[in-house]
Amino acid sequence: MAQAPPADKRRLILDAAIRVFARQGFHATRVSDIADEAGVAYGLVYHYFSSKDEVLNELFIERWSLLLAAIEEADRTGEDPRQKLGAVARFIFDSYRHDPELMKVIIVEVTRAANSFGKTHLEEIRRAYESIAKIVADGQASGAFRGDVAPMFASMSFYGAIEQLLSGWIFGTIPASDTDFDEARDLLVTTICDGLEPRG
Amino acid sequence: MAQAPPADKRRLILDAAIRVFARQGFHATRVSDIADEAGVAYGLVYHYFSSKDEVLNELFIERWSLLLAAIEEADRTGEDPRQKLGAVARFIFDSYRHDPELMKVIIVEVTRAANSFGKTHLEEIRRAYESIAKIVADGQASGAFRGDVAPMFASMSFYGAIEQLLSGWIFGTIPASDTDFDEARDLLVTTICDGLEPRG
DNA sequence: GGCTGCCGATTGACTGGTCAATCAACGAAG
DNA sequence: CTTCGTTGATTGACCAGTCAATCGGCAGCC
């Protein structure tokens, strides 16, 4: 019944899709590639998903909702804006460390593909920018950040910088090591927050 | 007819391609769309270009070499790192202002599409990052910038922030106005350079 | 236990449509 | 008559999505 985990094929297909999308990119993967990778018949993919697009949709929504939640959480529990932004960055970097293939797919095929796939999700993506902007705005209101930077600009610069670093690792532009990892995150947050401090 | 300027069909096709790629994205445009937009027969595209890919290649290389030159130029003529980075940012922002469609194509289809098309040009793209990193490294050597940030990190964060802002305008995440434009560039450079200053 | 009928899960051959690339032909200029 | 820019119909490959057929578990019944 619903209890016994009957080797959840649906999940199997999603996980296979992550691997194949990460390896070949969404456009270059055939539905049969996903099925093969999952060790499942071609048609079964269509039993669980209405289209190839929907597979990617599902992967994105699943992950992005976690990010949105993490930002809200950081905003709620952080003590100052610097700490809040640090928590946001940590979540994103950790997501990459935990499942680089999934993050690669999300970034390359959705977040940075605003022309094709990202278009469908522009709203959710913008929501993340806006939540980060809110953290910045609150920081300005409390005097922790200078007031002459539009929060949305700061937010997008912040997120853009993070994503660019991740892309650097993903595509080998930057060599990756675990030390670099935490250190990079720290430097990024420090540098940007310093830049956002009131002019002295 | 109108032979005076030899009605350069090749250029005509390239310019048409910019418009169509910007409107529909590379994958969604058929070669016939380019031909139609250029008011030219389908086959002529293949007279001037060996493939659809090559059209995009040409557009990218044409523009990216200008960027590389502009960075070198900024490095050579700028007085301090802040001014140099400002000149780099100005060139990129001005490129967008001057031909938003071309920049949209370059960013969306090449620069941020490292999985598909960008792969071919990873080397040229990296070269830009490295030139910017050199500016940062020199700034550190002269004491203008703090020394504990890897130049490549700073470079990619800087470029990533710029590209994210441009993407925001391109896709309407951020409302665009000409004032915002120069101001945004200025704030971005200021904020990041402040963040890169030696800790005081 | 053994039998039957049902239903959702699973299979993969097949179809319909799309599109990049080819190529034979045309006509204007020299 | 040759050259070459130009034309657009045709070809050939590819692939998403369909669907008819099969499998397997289980409920009810004897």
Describe this structure in words.
2 copies of one chain form a homodimer. Chain A has 200 residues and is mostly helical. Helices cover 75% and strands 0% of the residues of chain A. The first copy, chain A, has 9 helices and no strands. The first copy, chain A, has helices spanning 9-24, 31-38, 42-48, 52-77, 81-98, 100-111, 118-141, 151-170, 178-196. In chain A, helix 2 packs across helix 3 (42-48), helix 4 (52-77) runs parallel beside helix 7 and helix 8 runs antiparallel to helix 9 (178-196). The longest helix of chain A has 26 residues, at 52-77. The radius of gyration of chain A is 19 Å and the shape is elongated. In chain A, 44% of the residues are buried. The interface between A and B is large, with 52 and 52 residues. Chain A binds a DNA duplex (30 and 30 nucleotides) through residues 6, 9, 30-32, 40-44, 46-47, 51-52.
Which term fits the overall shape of chain A? elongated
Radius of gyration of chain A: 19 Å
How far apart the termini of chain A lie comes to: 66 Å
Put simply, the count of helices of chain A is 9
The succession of helices and strands of chain A, N to C, reads HHHHHHHHH
Arithmetic mean of pLDDT of chain A = 91
Largest interface: A-B, 52 and 52 residues
Uncertain runs of chain A are 1-6
- Tell me roughly what share of residues is in helical segments of chain A: over 70%
Q: What's the total number of strands of chain A?
A: 0
- Tell me the strand percentage band of chain A: under 5%
The largest β sheet of chain A comes out as: none
Structural class of chain A: mainly alpha
Oligomer designation: homodimer
